Amino acid sequence: MENTDPASAAIAAAKDVMAAHISALNDGDEAALAATLHFPQYRLSGGRMAVWQGPEDYFADFRARAGDGWHHSEWDSLDVMAAEPTKVHLDVRFTRYREDGSVLGRFRSLWVLSEIQGVWAAQLHSSFAP
After folding, report:
1. 3-state SS record for the chain
2. What tens digit of pLDDT does each residue of 95-126 get?
3. Distance from C-alpha of 99 to C-alpha of 2, rounded to nearest angstrom
4. How far apart are CA 92 and CA 63, in angstroms?
5. CA pair distance 93, 77, nearest whole angstrom
6. What does the alpha-carbon distance between residue 54 and residue 97 come to, in Å, rounded to a whole number?
7. How many Cβ atoms are within 10 Å of 35's Cβ, its own excluded?
8. Separation between Cα atoms, residue 31 and residue 21, nearest integer Å
9. pLDDT tens digits, residue range 34-81?
10. Rg of the Cα atoms in the chain
11. What sign results for the dihedral spanned by CA atoms 61, 64, 69, 73?
């Protein structure tokens, strides 16, 4: 039976964006990473709202936040909290790793992905990660 839930396509698009995001992040591909984000991009962490107007500083800022020794990250879970045809909220759990595979930290965050002018990308996230 075909899925007729109007949010199912949105959920699939949001999860595709998240897969592309983690791949680009781990590859250090700034252009591909920027393609997974709407700008301005918003991030709430530690009681501070960061806003990036464009992609030029996003990756450098991530490297500073991830800390010395960061090699790659992996999504542990991407759970849908709410979805509609043009917006999806994801409860995200992820782990940051060193090159030897040891864990730097495990974190939880809320990601909001949206379709703007036909493009799916992350619009904002609130994270417990530094």
Report:
1. CCCCCCCHHHHHHHHHHHHHHHHHHHHCCHHHHHCCEEEEEEEEECCEEEEECCHHHHHHHHHHHHCCCCCEEEEEEEEEEEEECCEEEEEEEEEEECCCCCEEEEEEEEEEEEEECCEEEEEEEEECCC
2. 999 999 999 999 999 999 999 999 999 999 99
3. 43
4. 19
5. 5
6. 27
7. 15
8. 11
9. 999 999 999 999 999 999 998 887 877 777 777 789 999 999 999 999
10. 15
11. negative
Instruction: Look up residue 40 and give its two tokens.
Output: 């301005």
Strands 72-84 and 48-52: unpaired
Distance, in Å, from the CA atom of 60 to the CA atom of 66, rounded to the nearest integer, reads 10
Residues forming a β-bridge with 97 = 72, 103
Interacting residues of 39 by C-beta distance below 8 A, sequence separation 6+: 52, 53, 54, 55
